[in-house]
């Protein structure tokens, strides 16, 4: 029976953002009357749902539009032919990015399960879910370190003069240069440490070589601030050194923020994404308007967009396009499955996939105007060309961009805006990464961990990941971060993505999966033949091609002038294999859990378990799946009387077009 507390009326708060649904009005504690009232009620009472559709879309935006959107795509676009790069990028979006994104949203929404427990569809392959869990766990450890850096820079920006504007600080070296060399560069000269400009024809050859060496090793103030003051970077990964407690406290602050946002699960998470998903667009727009007024802006934009059509004949360009679209949408980490698992069963996940995936691509393109507009200004200030300033990764966010900001009027204001934007981008992704870890653990033991114990799982997960992240607060922490970033979710994510798609398309059955989607949407995802072809053939082939390209293009990891030793490369491959290894390990473990001949055990494990399918009884009836009795969800309880089942049907089985309407229902007395 449905307890009356599951139906909370809000007659005393007309402004509360409750979901409008056809619901039951409790009269004297009995279910004996129906009335159109506004309630806040989840379809899946046991597990919970998003409060509204917008929260889910924004959470996907917040997850997919991460730091890579700002510091990787613009650089790839410039390096691979400018505007011409958009052609392979768009093709890869249509045949790889969007199909994978839609695939995982549909998969998670249909079963309402996390990335591990969802593999009731084929228990033999449950290791794929554990692999996703490991990937998210590893990413969560280092990703929050970038958030911690953003906090560190935000606090440093709250001053009248930015600390990276000069070379007159304790942390600066003899290689630092904070003077204007533009005029000297225009004369094809070089500047010495005393800020004197020298022309080659006026000095000896030996002195000129000394000047060239000095200028080759020169560093901008913002670069030295990041590496010498913030990181206090060591000579290599072999020299970790002590913990930098300023960074450790910033890392703790980052984890505290993530913890409190997720404390009430998707209810509090859903409110936070209104800020983390939308605020970056406001800041990007403000920065674009400001950069458009700076000298060198047009040069930067032209460098970004000017098409080099000859680049389209290079395989590396297509490989970069495929890799970028794959990693920018963040499939195969388990995050998309987790977010979609909190949807209502009949949510239009196809529409959501198109909106979010397309929005992510457009955001990356838009961010390029901001980044290259500022880089163009930076090149103008330094009296050099854009290609000598353009970079990617942490160097762009924490060295080049701060240097450019420091040269603007009211520099602290622009610095604060930029690092608040980085914070929102980083936290938006980190929320989903940690929620994936927590959801996976809770879904494995729902009767023990769901409800009041959720917060303890969250606290334990955040604490463990924080403690493991302290190694990145050491002097050699940057080298550790680069190692994990390179190996945690590249080869492994590609292998897991290929396995995931092939198992569903070829083993579970592509037509069966498309029928599941049709059941949720009320119609086929248009066009059905396209999804059938892409998921069975094209997407797996593209993933294999990306994997091969990644392996062929593999180079020993470097950071600046430092080359990682062989031991670090071996550790990197161990990190990558730690997730992939879960697939055979879990398969073997499950086989030995059963009795009987080996082949018979494998045959049983390859079949969907009896509790595979929609979470709620009423949706299982729609899907023709076996009913189950092990859930606390009212719609999953057995022995319903007909009028009770009919009442639940009226309450739950609304379509998207009806979900926000007032529905008048008449009471029909019991038979």
UniProtKB/TrEMBL annotation:
<dbReference type="GO" id="GO:0005886">
    <property type="term" value="C:plasma membrane"/>
</dbReference>
<keyword id="KW-0812">Transmembrane</keyword>
<dbReference type="Pfam" id="PF00209">
    <property type="entry name" value="SNF"/>
</dbReference>
<comment type="similarity">
    <text>Belongs to the sodium:neurotransmitter symporter (SNF) (TC 2.A.22) family.</text>
</comment>
<feature type="transmembrane region" description="Helical">
    <location>
        <begin position="128"/>
        <end position="151"/>
    </location>
</feature>
<feature type="transmembrane region" description="Helical">
    <location>
        <begin position="570"/>
        <end position="592"/>
    </location>
</feature>
<feature type="binding site">
    <location>
        <position position="425"/>
    </location>
    <ligand>
        <name>Na(+)</name>
    </ligand>
</feature>
<dbReference type="InterPro" id="IPR037272">
    <property type="entry name" value="SNS_sf"/>
</dbReference>
<keyword id="KW-0769">Symport</keyword>
<protein>
    <recommendedName>
        <fullName>Transporter</fullName>
    </recommendedName>
</protein>
<feature type="transmembrane region" description="Helical">
    <location>
        <begin position="56"/>
        <end position="74"/>
    </location>
</feature>
<feature type="transmembrane region" description="Helical">
    <location>
        <begin position="416"/>
        <end position="444"/>
    </location>
</feature>
<dbReference type="GO" id="GO:0046872">
    <property type="term" value="F:metal ion binding"/>
</dbReference>
<keyword id="KW-1015">Disulfide bond</keyword>
<feature type="transmembrane region" description="Helical">
    <location>
        <begin position="456"/>
        <end position="481"/>
    </location>
</feature>
<feature type="transmembrane region" description="Helical">
    <location>
        <begin position="278"/>
        <end position="305"/>
    </location>
</feature>
<feature type="disulfide bond">
    <location>
        <begin position="167"/>
        <end position="176"/>
    </location>
</feature>
<keyword id="KW-1133">Transmembrane helix</keyword>
<feature type="binding site">
    <location>
        <position position="65"/>
    </location>
    <ligand>
        <name>Na(+)</name>
    </ligand>
</feature>
<feature type="binding site">
    <location>
        <position position="328"/>
    </location>
    <ligand>
        <name>Na(+)</name>
    </ligand>
</feature>
<keyword id="KW-0915">Sodium</keyword>
<feature type="transmembrane region" description="Helical">
    <location>
        <begin position="245"/>
        <end position="266"/>
    </location>
</feature>
<feature type="transmembrane region" description="Helical">
    <location>
        <begin position="354"/>
        <end position="380"/>
    </location>
</feature>
<dbReference type="GO" id="GO:0015375">
    <property type="term" value="F:glycine:sodium symporter activity"/>
</dbReference>
<feature type="transmembrane region" description="Helical">
    <location>
        <begin position="529"/>
        <end position="550"/>
    </location>
</feature>
<dbReference type="InterPro" id="IPR000175">
    <property type="entry name" value="Na/ntran_symport"/>
</dbReference>
<feature type="transmembrane region" description="Helical">
    <location>
        <begin position="325"/>
        <end position="342"/>
    </location>
</feature>
<keyword id="KW-0813">Transport</keyword>
<feature type="binding site">
    <location>
        <position position="360"/>
    </location>
    <ligand>
        <name>Na(+)</name>
    </ligand>
</feature>
<feature type="transmembrane region" description="Helical">
    <location>
        <begin position="487"/>
        <end position="508"/>
    </location>
</feature>
<feature type="binding site">
    <location>
        <position position="64"/>
    </location>
    <ligand>
        <name>Na(+)</name>
    </ligand>
</feature>
<keyword id="KW-0479">Metal-binding</keyword>
<keyword id="KW-0472">Membrane</keyword>
<feature type="transmembrane region" description="Helical">
    <location>
        <begin position="86"/>
        <end position="107"/>
    </location>
</feature>
